[in-house]
């Protein structure tokens, strides 16, 4: 057999060996997604299924809200960190896919030297380029397990980006909702103070004419001062919320104040959305749970990586170097090459590799516990928000009826006062009762919408995949392009 034939046969055998290794069994556990993580049914009543939309925020019919969510996401440090983590995970995945193959490197060189044996010097020029490569044979699956782990980690980081975006959207929506209700509360406090001021003036006049006691006058003045203090406190709360939204969105405060300028306020009425019929569906709808499951898969693969380190490694290395010699106008060419395996056999390491395997198993158990704990927490969050929302919905008709009845009473006493059958003090007292009923209804509506936002996030925030848009102008892709 000729030298060329032997080379071809050897190359074919090594290629078959390398290809065959990919199908060999791998050490370490083969990952299977946990099955029994959530209960079979909800333990609270769920609303009637409705169409769930990823752009649920649009159903508020409020362009300012969408603008704030978009600005907050664009300037969020947590979202930026999530993008950074994706980039790092992608780099690790590329490196893992290349593991075992060191690539092909070329090392060109040229040298010129002179030598003499007593006569005229002879010049010798040597030109060469050396090509080197090596390939680790994945006998026990350590490299494949490393790729599994890196891919799972990359998927986890992509899911965590969605979780960060959902958190920012929820925080922005709640801050905006609180501020709009704060504006409405300021109006109620202003009207309440006007009524208290009117009552204090009437009481002072009645006291001066002997119809009211000094204690009644002092009490009226005290309640007026308290109402002024309450108004001041509510205005301060609105200012604090402005500052918080500036920090959240990165918008200039004058621009934000202009966008949040007082206007005719109507209670936000977001549309409904679907709560999964069974808790198990929640595992596929919440990006934080999907990230935890992918972390579990990565931990499982790392057990195989550490286990494979305990076994021998075979690396095939090759080199080919063409050389050209120029000597006094005479050119000579040469070719050198080498090819062969290197075996790395772990003999004694003071138990380090075994300890690494044990640590990997503990990491796997911790990841499994973390996944199950997050699943239980998700179930708790959904059920708690459902219960809270049901309570608000049950209370809303009663508070609405109370507000309506107080409004009717105010209208009736106003008519009696204008006809001269009732006094101004009783009129203002009834007015304040109506304002207090309106305030209670306003507070309930604020809490209800806040809970609805939190429930929407708890069931996954309409997340349907890596390209789910969360605000008005968010990019279609979850990964920033260079």
UniProtKB/TrEMBL annotation:
InterPro entries: MdtP/NodT-like, OMP_efflux. GO terms for molecular function: efflux transmembrane transporter activity. The keyword tRNA processing does not apply. It is found in: Cell membrane. One of its GO terms (cellular component) is plasma membrane. Keywords: Lipoprotein, Membrane, Palmitate, Signal, Transmembrane, Transmembrane beta strand. Residues 1-19 form the signal peptide. Its main location: membrane. It is a lipid-anchor. Pfam families: OEP (PF02321). Belongs to the outer membrane factor (OMF) (TC 1.B.17) family. This is RND efflux system, outer membrane lipoprotein, NodT family.
């Amino acid at each position: 057999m000729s030298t060329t034939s032997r080379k071809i046969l050897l190359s074919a055998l090594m290629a078959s060996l390398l290809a065959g290794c990919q199908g060999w069994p791998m050490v370490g556990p083969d990952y299977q997604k946990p099955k029994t993580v959530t209960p079979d049914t909800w333990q609270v009543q769920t609303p009637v299924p409705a169409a769930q939309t990823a752009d649920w925020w649009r159903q508020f019919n409020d362009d300012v809200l969408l603008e704030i969510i978009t600005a907050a996401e664009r300037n969020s440090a947590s979202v930026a960190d999530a993008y950074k983590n994706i980039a790092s995970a992608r780099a690790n995945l590329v490196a893992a896919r290349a593991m075992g193959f060191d690539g092909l490197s070329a090392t060109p060189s040229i040298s010129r030297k002179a030598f003499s044996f007593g006569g005229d010097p002879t010049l010798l020029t040597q030109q060469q380029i050396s090509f080197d490569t090596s390939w680790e044979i994945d006998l026990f699956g350590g490299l494949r397990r490393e790729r599994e782990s890196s891919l799972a980690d990359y998927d986890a980081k992509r899911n965590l980006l969605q979780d960060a975006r959902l958190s920012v959207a929820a925080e922005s929506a709640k801050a905006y909702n609180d501020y709009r209700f704060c504006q409405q509360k300021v109006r109620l406090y202003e009207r309440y103070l006007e009524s208290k001021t009117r009552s204090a003036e009437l009481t002072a006049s009645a006291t001066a004419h002997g119809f009211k006691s000094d204690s009644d006058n002092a009490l009226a003045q005290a309640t007026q001062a308290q109402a002024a203090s309450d108004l001041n406190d509510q205005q301060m709360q609105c200012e604090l919320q402005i500052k918080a939204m500036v920090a959240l969105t990165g918008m200039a405060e004058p621009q934000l104040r202009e966008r949040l300028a007082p206007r005719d306020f109507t209670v936000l009425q977001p549309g409904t959305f679907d709560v999964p019929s069974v808790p198990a569906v929640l595992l596929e709808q919440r990006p934080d749970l999907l990230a935890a499951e992918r972390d579990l898969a990565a931990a499982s693969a790392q057990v195989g990586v550490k286990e494979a380190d305990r076994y021998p490694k075979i690396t095939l290395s090759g080199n080919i170097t063409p050389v050209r010699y120029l000597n006094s106008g005479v050119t000579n060419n040469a070719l050198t090459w080498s090819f062969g395996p290197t075996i790395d056999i772990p003999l004694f390491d003071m138990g380090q590799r075994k300890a690494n395997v044990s640590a990997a198993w503990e990491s796997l158990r911790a990841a499994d516990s973390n996944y199950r704990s997050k699943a239980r927490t998700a179930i708790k969050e959904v059920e708690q928000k459902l219960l809270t929302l049901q309570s608000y919905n049950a209370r809303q008709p009663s508070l609405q009826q109370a507000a309506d009845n107080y409004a009717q009473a105010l209208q009736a006493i106003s008519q009696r006062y204008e006809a001269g059958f009732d006094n101004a003090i009783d009129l203002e007292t009834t007015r304040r009762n109506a304002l207090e009923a309106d305030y209670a209804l306003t507070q309930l509506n604020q809490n209800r919408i806040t809970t609805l936002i939190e429930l929407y996030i708890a069931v996954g925030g309409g997340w349907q995949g890596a390209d789910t848009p969360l605000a008005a102008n968010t990019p279609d892709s979850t990964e920033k392009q260079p």
